[in-house]
């Protein structure tokens, strides 16, 4: 089971850097689950939440708060040590004996482990009042803590006998000799024997014969706790896993075999950390679907691309098809956005015009003159919700972060390879090739009467791009192809232009320009189609920049686009193949489905500006495109365009780290 | 995948009532007095329930979480209103 990084030890940045530093036991737990997971989380510093990690965090918050604080100062003989948020803080028994301080460990919190010389059996199952219901299917909802419904006399008896067992929660201990630091959810001490108890969500593993067992990662974690205890002078032979959902205890004896596994795991963790080489993904493992990092790791996709040429089994669709949260765009001028609890409140002239739940959004985008309160900014950044800034007309300024990826290794690789001419050219060729192919596909699909010469030319230019000798010649090829493509662009507009400029003599002819398109122009765009194209590219740049940052890449250092201050060169690189598929396609559908109409535009001198309403409609059209599902030609599963951007960016990162040999530029079939 | 949940509560104390109302506003639409409709992922549901559990008095209050199925295949007639109209919105983004 993957554990969240919820304790200070594992997010302490210093812990990850020096190989001599103590390894948190959790890391080793993860290494046993999957070495790649360990690498992604603790070497690259990537993290994603899953249902398991969230559940774990909630559970541990309660476990840790069980005695009302992280560092219980008094030993308590607990009546019931099942953590419960609404329980009265457990009353400490009238001090059985004084706790003996053990100054030996610097990480030991105020000594709570010792102090009782009662000879109770360590880890005796009967000390757990809930043990009377080993198979109880009573409560699968771990958010409520009902008291056990039946308590057998036997247990009550047992409880009186063992009342002087000492329980200590959230004890952090380290071992210099192992180089490991471990946090014990609960330590049960009786006499000199200490038994660590680890709280788990969910259910224990069940063997064929019905007995309960533990998985290796959990066993190793217990072994580490036992070893750390021993290193601190306690006697400890076994540990206990307590499963919150089923309220079952599983004893984990620490034998030689387990010790060997544990020692080799510690060594492997150090090796992986020093190697700088990501371990390969597991092969068709049942662990991957439950792994919180599956969307970052892309196990099947990586394997497929790494073993290109060989017959490959199907790629299981392990990534979720789309992000469940949605972007928010604010474009009403003069609006003020504040926060009330978990709600964003958009106010115009002091009146709330809309409330949006923070839990529902993955981006905040501001067009022009809009105020965001500091609390909102802080909350957004804290939740990794980026804030995008645009001018009122839609010119993209940039994004403020909160996408705190610590993955410096891939960034270092990016900087190294950006200086490698051959590498840059290689990536650039693939990008331009993909872009031209996608332009051609768009023409074939949407043009009323696709021109055979244009299609043939585009195919030729695409192939020529693959053989380009330099970035400069590539730019030339891209330019010629664009001219051909935009020359035919108007043929994809299927709405009759309605009021055409100077047409039927309408006075409005000047105010409402028609959807005509001659060529691409910008700054300022001189017709509605160009105005929409500019806005669409702005939005797409923002989304590519967000994807690059999320993956840990520097959005400003590109391979094809040259470095220029303020220019998000890598985002522009990533965007090339997607221009036709997302941006231009949105413009076409906005016009063809009449989501945007000529009266959504205002002529201002030589330039054309979108009205507020027009922009709102267009934003909806853009997001509809981003949310629509598309089949990935290599992996044969369907994901939204937004998810696709992320996957493609992650694959680029894999290319940079050398795990795969070719960057597969996305092309529609 | 999001699912639709109807969450209702019966809370005995005015302070907790306010707290639970505020908490649920962060997760769903307030339909009626102590009734919310929430579209939640599994992770959201877990967080939402944990938040509620922290507020509710387990001996006196009660909240019910009623699973109305996947949000994606939501039927038009899932919720029917008599009297004032009811409408569920589904846009790919928020535009204000
Ligand atoms: S997805 Fe699979 S291979 Fe990748 S880190 Fe998780 S368990 Fe390991």
Automatic annotation (TrEMBL), chain A:
Alphabetized Gene3D superfamilies for the sequence: 3.90.320.10, CRISPR-associated endonuclease Cas1, C-terminal domain (1.20.120.920), CRISPR-associated endonuclease Cas1, N-terminal domain (3.100.10.20)
Coiled coil: none
InterPro entries cross-referenced by the UniProt entry: Cas1 (IPR050646), CRISPR-assoc_Cas1 (IPR002729), CRISPR-assoc_Cas1_C (IPR042206), CRISPR-assoc_Cas1_N (IPR042211), Dna2/Cas4_DUF83 (IPR022765), PDDEXK-like_dom_sf (IPR011604)
Cofactor dependency: Mg(2+); Mn(2+)
Entry function: CRISPR (clustered regularly interspaced short palindromic repeat), is an adaptive immune system that provides protection against mobile genetic elements (viruses, transposable elements and conjugative plasmids). CRISPR clusters contain spacers, sequences complementary to antecedent mobile elements, and target invading nucleic acids. CRISPR clusters are transcribed and processed into CRISPR RNA (crRNA). Acts as a dsDNA endonuclease. Involved in the integration of spacer DNA into the CRISPR cassette.
Protein family according to the UniProt entry: Belongs to the CRISPR-associated endonuclease Cas1 family.
Quaternary structure and interacting proteins, as annotated: Homodimer, forms a heterotetramer with a Cas2 homodimer.
Official protein name in the record: CRISPR-associated endonuclease Cas1
TrEMBL record, chain B:
CDD domains: Cas2_I_II_III
A biological process from GO: maintenance of CRISPR repeat elements
MF-aspect GO terms: hydrolase activity; metal ion binding; RNA endonuclease activity
E.C. no: 3.1.-.-
Cofactors required: Mg(2+)
Enzyme class: hydrolase
Domain of life: Bacteria
Ligand binding (Mg(2+)): 10
Family designation: Belongs to the CRISPR-associated endoribonuclease Cas2 protein family.
Complex formation: Homodimer, forms a heterotetramer with a Cas1 homodimer.
Functional description taken from the UniProt entry: CRISPR (clustered regularly interspaced short palindromic repeat), is an adaptive immune system that provides protection against mobile genetic elements (viruses, transposable elements and conjugative plasmids). CRISPR clusters contain sequences complementary to antecedent mobile elements and target invading nucleic acids. CRISPR clusters are transcribed and processed into CRISPR RNA (crRNA). Functions as a ssRNA-specific endoribonuclease. Involved in the integration of spacer DNA into the CRISPR cassette.
PANTHER family referenced in this protein's UniProt entry, alphabetically: CRISPR-ASSOCIATED ENDORIBONUCLEASE CAS2, CRISPR-ASSOCIATED ENDORIBONUCLEASE CAS2 3
Protein name per UniProt: CRISPR-associated endoribonuclease Cas2
Protein species of origin: Rubripirellula lacrimiformis
UniProt lineage: Bacteria, Pseudomonadati, Planctomycetota, Planctomycetia, Pirellulales
Gene field: cas2_2
């Amino acid at each position: 089971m993957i554990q969240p990084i919820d304790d200070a030890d594992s997010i302490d940045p210093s812990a990850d850097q020096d190989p001599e530093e103590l390894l948190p036991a959790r890391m080793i737990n993860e290494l046993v689950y999957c070495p790649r997971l360990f690498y992604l989380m603790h070497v690259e510093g990537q993290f994603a939440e899953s249902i398991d990690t969230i559940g774990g965090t909630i559970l541990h918050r309660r476990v840790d708060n069980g005695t009302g604080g992280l560092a219980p100062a008094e030993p308590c003989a607990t009546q019931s040590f099942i953590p419960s948020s609404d329980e009265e803080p457990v009353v400490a028994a009238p001090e059985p004996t004084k706790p003996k301080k053990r100054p030996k460990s610097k990480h030991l919190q105020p000594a709570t482990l010792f102090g009782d010389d009662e000879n109770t059996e360590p880890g005796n199952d009967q000390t757990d009042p809930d043990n009377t219901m080993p198979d109880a299917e009573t409560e699968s909802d771990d958010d409520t803590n009902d008291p056990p419904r039946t308590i057998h006399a036997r247990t009550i008896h047992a409880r009186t006998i063992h009342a002087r067992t000492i329980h200590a929660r959230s004890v952090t201990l380290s071992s210099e000799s192992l180089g490991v630091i471990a946090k014990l959810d609960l330590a049960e001490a009786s006499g000199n024997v200490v038994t660590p108890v680890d709280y788990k969500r969910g259910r224990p593993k069940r063997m064929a014969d019905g007995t309960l067992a533990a998985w290796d990662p959990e066993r190793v974690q217990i072994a580490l706790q036992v070893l750390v205890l021993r290193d601190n002078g306690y006697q400890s032979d076994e540990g206990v896993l307590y499963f919150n959902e089923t309220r079952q205890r599983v004893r984990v004896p620490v034998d030689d075999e387990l010790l060997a596994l544990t020692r080799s795991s510690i060594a492997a963790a150090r090796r992986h950390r020093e190697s700088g080489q990501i371990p390969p993904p597991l092969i068709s493992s049942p662990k991957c679907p439950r792994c919180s990092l599956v969307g970052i790791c892309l196990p099947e996709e990586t394997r497929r691309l790494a073993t290109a040429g060989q017959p490959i089994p199907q790629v299981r669709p392990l990534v979720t098809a789309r992000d469940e949260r949605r972007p928010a765009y604010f474009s009403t001028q003069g609006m003020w956005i504040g926060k009330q609890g978990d709600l964003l409140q958009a106010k115009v002239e002091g009146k709330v015009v809309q409330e949006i739940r923070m839990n529902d959004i993955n981006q905040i985008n501001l067009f022009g003159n809009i105020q965001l309160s500091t609390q909102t900014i802080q909350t957004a950044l804290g939740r990794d919700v980026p804030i995008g800034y645009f001018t009122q007309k839609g010119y993209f300024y940039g994004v403020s972060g909160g996408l705190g990826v610590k993955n410096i290794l891939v960034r270092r690789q990016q900087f190294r390879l950006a200086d490698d001419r051959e590498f840059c050219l290689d990536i650039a060729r693939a990008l331009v090739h993909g872009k031209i192919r996608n332009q051609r596909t768009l023409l074939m699909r949407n043009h009323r009467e696709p021109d055979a010469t244009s299609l043939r030319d585009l195919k030729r230019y695409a192939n020529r791009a693959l053989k380009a000798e330099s970035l400069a010649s590539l730019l030339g090829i891209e330019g010629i192809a664009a001219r051909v493509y935009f020359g035919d662009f108007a043929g994809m507009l299927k709405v009759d232009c309605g009021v055409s400029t100077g047409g039927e003599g309408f006075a409005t002819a000047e105010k409402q320009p028609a959807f005509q398109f001659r060529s691409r122009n910008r700054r300022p765009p001189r017709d509605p189609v160009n105005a929409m194209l500019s806005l669409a590219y702005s939005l797409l740049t923002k989304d590519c920049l967000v994807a690059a940052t999320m993956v840990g890449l520097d959005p400003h250092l590109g391979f094809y686009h040259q470095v220029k201050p303020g220019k998000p060169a890598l985002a522009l690189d990533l965007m090339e193949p997607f221009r036709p598929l997302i941006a231009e396609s949105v413009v076409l559908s906005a016009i063809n489905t009449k989501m945007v109409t000529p009266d959504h535009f205002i002529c201002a001198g030589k330039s054309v500006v979108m009205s507020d309403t027009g922009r709102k409609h267009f934003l909806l059209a853009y997001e509809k495109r981003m949310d629509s599902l598309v089949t990935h030609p290599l992996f044969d599963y369907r994901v939204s365009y937004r998810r696709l951007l992320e996957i493609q960016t992650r694959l680029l990162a894999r290319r940079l780290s050398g795990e795969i040999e070719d960057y597969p530029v996305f092309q529609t079939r | 995948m999001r699912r639709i949940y109807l969450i209702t509560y019966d809370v005995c104390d005015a302070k907790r009532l306010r707290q639970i109302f505020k908490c649920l506003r962060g997760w769903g639409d307030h339909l009626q007095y102590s009734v919310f409709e929430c579209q939640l992922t599994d992770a959201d549901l877990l967080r939402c329930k944990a938040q509620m559990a922290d507020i509710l008095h387990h001996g006196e209050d009660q909240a019910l979480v009623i699973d109305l199925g996947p949000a994606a295949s939501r039927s038009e007639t899932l919720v029917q209103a008599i009297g004032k109209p009811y409408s569920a919105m589904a846009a790919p983004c928020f535009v204000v």
